[in-house]
Write a structure and sequence with these properties.
Strands 1-2-3-4-6-9 form a six-stranded mixed beta sheet, sandwiched between helices. A three-stranded mixed beta sheet has the order 5-7-8. By secondary structure, it is α/β, with parallel strands linked by helices. The protein is globular and about 55 Å long. β1 and β2 form a beta hairpin. The N and C termini lie far apart (about 45 Å).
């Protein structure tokens, strides 16, 4: 398999964008955001493409932020770089929402943190029965980002969203479907086939109504999404500067329960 951070496979009017760091559960690494942004820009410009599928290589969809990278940023006080990563992720979320074509998340395994919120930013979600979803930020002393505070409560309600954010526990595919996180769940060995079937059906829809439909559904929410993501950046930077984040990273590395002190 190529070592490109995002693989691009075209099948007629459907293009599949594969996050390609399988050894890291496709956690966000150097070049991945830029590569996915470039691929989505290509999709927007190519009239023959009607549907974009986002999935992950290997056994995971996307593990969220790379812990080793975050440890490096924290230990070296690179808060400006951390902010740049947050803002780049938020711009990617906006790009998906503004794309005048359907974006389908095919969740083939764990989707955690920013990985879960990438899936939530997509228009539709199909999941393997081996998939799981976790808002894992709190476990290392961080605040949700990538639009999660906007998307999740609108899908599952505020009470369930708060539970998922505050506990950080993973939710299996069946429960994710029950509460509205995903549109459907299929057996793992049929995920690729069922994703292709759904994408091809979606690609048969006339492109002008689809573009107008996305605009109608999302346009009035765009301002609210922007406000929420601005709050996410502000809140996340406060968490990045805290000692609790340092403790969360250290506990994760040492495979122990963190001792958060609110400082």
């Amino acid at each position: 398999m190529s070592d490109e951070p995002v693989l691009v496979n075209q099948d007629g009017a459907v293009v599949t964008l594969i996050l390609n760091r399988p050894e890291k559960l496709n956690a966000w690494g150097e070049g991945m955001r830029e590569a996915l942004t470039a691929a989505l820009t290509m999709v927007a410009r190519e009239p023959a493409l009607r549907v974009a599928v986002i999935t992950g290589a290997g056994r995971g969809f996307c593990g969220g932020g790379d812990i080793n990278l975050m440890i490096d940023l924290k230990e070296n006080h690179h808060s400006a770089t951390f902010r740049e990563y947050l803002e780049a992720g938020h711009e990617l979320v906006r790009q998906i929402r503004r794309l005048p074509k359907i974006v389908l998340a095919s969740v083939n395994g764990p989707a955690a943190g920013a990985g879960m919120n990438l899936a939530l930013a997509c228009d539709l979600r199909i999941a393997s029965d081996r998939a799981s979803f976790a808002q894992a930020f709190v476990r290392i002393g961080l605040h949700p980002d990538w639009g999660g505070t906007f998307f999740l409560p609108r899908l599952v309600g505020i009470g369930r969203a708060l539970e998922m954010f505050a506990l950080g526990d993973p939710v299996n595919a069946a429960e994710a479907h029950r509460v509205g996180v995903v549109n459907c769940v299929v057996p793992h060995d049929r995920l690729q086939e069922e994703t292709r079937n759904l994408a091809l059906r979606l690609a048969e829809a006339p492109p002008i109504p689809v573009a107008q439909l996305k605009q109608a559904l999302y346009e009035r929410l765009e301002t609210e999404l922007g406000v929420m993501m601005e709050h996410e950046v502000s809140a996340q930077m406060k968490c990045f500067d805290s000692e609790d984040f340092r403790e969360g990273l250290q506990a994760f590395r040492e495979k122990r329960k963190p001792n958060f002190k609110g400082i």
